[in-house]
From TrEMBL:
Family annotation (PROSITE patterns): FAD_PCMH, TAT
Pfam families for the chain: Chol_subst-bind (PF09129), FAD_binding_4 (PF01565)
Record has Oxidoreductase as a keyword: yes
Name under which the protein is recorded: FAD/FMN-containing dehydrogenase
Species name: Patulibacter medicamentivorans
Keywords: FAD, Flavoprotein, Oxidoreductase
Residues annotated as domain FAD-binding PCMH-type: 64-255
Amino acid sequence: MPTTRSTSDVPTLRRRELLLAGAATAAAGGLVVPPPALGDPSPPFDLPAGIAVERRRFENWSGEIVHESVWTAAPRDAEEVLRLVRWAARRGWRLRARGHDHTWAPFAVAPGVAVGRTLLVDTTRHLTGIRVVTGARPRVNAQAGAAMEAILGALAEAGLGLTAVPAPGDLTIGGVLAVGGHGTGIPAVGEQRRDGASYGSISNLVLSLRAVVWDGAQGRYVLRRFHRDDPAIAPLLVNLGAAFVVDVVVRAVRDVPLRCESFLDIPIEELLAPTAGGGRRTLSSFLDRAGRAEIIWYPGTKSPWLKVWTPMRVRPQESRRVEAPYNYPFSDQMPRPVTDLIARAAIAPGGLGRVLGQVMHGATAVGLEATRSSDLWGRSKDTLLYVRPTTLRVTANGYALLTRRENVQPVLARVLAELRRAESAGAPALLGPTEVRVTGLDHPGDCGRDGAVAPALSALRPRPDHPEWDVAIWLDLLTIPGAPGAIARMVAFERWLLAAFDPGEVGVRVEWSKGWGYARKGAWRSRHVLERVIPASFDAGGGRGGWRPTVDALTRLDPHGIFRSPLLDRLLG
Ligand SMILES: Cc1cc2nc3c(=O)[nH]c(=O)nc-3n(C[C@H](O)[C@H](O)[C@H](O)COP(=O)(O)OP(=O)(O)OC[C@H]3O[C@@H](n4cnc5c(N)ncnc54)[C@H](O)[C@@H]3O)c2cc1C
């Protein structure tokens, strides 16, 4: 763990030296590659025959990244993606895979940075094929633009599922793999991991994938399949968009229905008590009992919304059977004008902000009651998918704290104490909930393939020097974009978090899709975090897949920097 900190903003965008190297390589291969001129508004020219492009608006889910007009293509198959990549290499353009734009981190396009010579490649229009393969080792083949909801739906039709998944269904599998998407869940006490089940990220379930990569021998980009036992797949399993995955094979398991119970009456001090046991309703007691839990703690309230999922083959009498996902309409089915109005009212001086947490808590209590949703039972996907895009649009930081299961209570008790301390010291209020989930790590063997390698850039990659670390605590502080003092609060929290724990007990990694690297002007700007903390968090403990070898491997797969963006330039150098 680093001991020094600085949050100075990264002053300027650095050009990748590799672009020059890439240009030289291309020239050697008979291609001419002028370096991309950011800000060049000219349309793409000389495109491969038959592939149309159009100017489209880009707005990420939180509304914090908006570009009114970005050149966008929607290739019909992997071959068309390949032709676009070869075209980009020839013409000095950059390509960014585009899924459902749910990511907070500006990996694809950055706010306020011109998008000239950037072509977005929309995978959601045509690259959506899904094929389920049943049998002793069930799996699903999916094209990169297939939505998680569609994939889980197809699996469910065959009686299959995944152990834990991200909460929204409108995420592409390509986008989820890019950032190491995850759900919540560790084995309950006495629960045996089933063959092919992983308590880590979705990336850890990948059996193989196809990506567009540079082939040095041929001197051009090619489509190549990578298998899970090939070390070359490690940087692609969580790739931050610095590669282009066109399709993927994901391991599945026979589905076990889940009961999902909601609790609103357990004081946060009890749930996050420093020690487990003593008959208290601690988070650990729920994890021991059921393995799967999530805390949503609205600001200024006493007791959070706790959801606990328990695998149960038979519906308990008191549970309501559900046959479709998204069973909390009171929390995620609000028209955009309403959510925008709430957000504006919350951040206005003297506005709703002070009481927003109580309003949300009250609405949850009433909503759970009115929709009889406190106790649900159904196929796993019908309780694990519970966030629609029409929920209040928030911004979030995100971190994974790798540690021993026994540390869940003391670690979270310290986080709670810090949040309390900051409040009493007059820190700017959070206008959104604090969320906690707990997963296992990405043990590569879990996918069932001998010799499987771990996703190199996954926050859940196990630490070889700490084989006793078996869980990751995922921590997110949410607030409304533009909330007064929010950035200062995030800066202070991150600074505290990175120094708070004994590095022999807890290792902190960032949650790629969310906010991290906070500096005075916002997230993803702290040079210290980008250049030191993040690389160190992947180097710590040694083993295969350190930061620099992984970045170098990604660069070898894309020597022309076709898939780079301003943030990736800064992060990967
Ligand atoms: C309300 C909400 C709730 C969320 N809940 C969760 C959660 O429970 N768990 C969790 O883990 N995450 C969660 N997320 C984050 C989400 O998983 C990621 O942001 C994910 O990347 C979004 O998928 P997408 O299709 O929208 O990708 P996009 O946002 O479109 O793309 C994300 C990045 O992936 C790259 N990319 C997309 N497709 C490909 C491809 N084919 N090959 C290579 N790179 C590609 C893009 O270039 C971009 O850099 C949540 C986000 C929101 C907004």
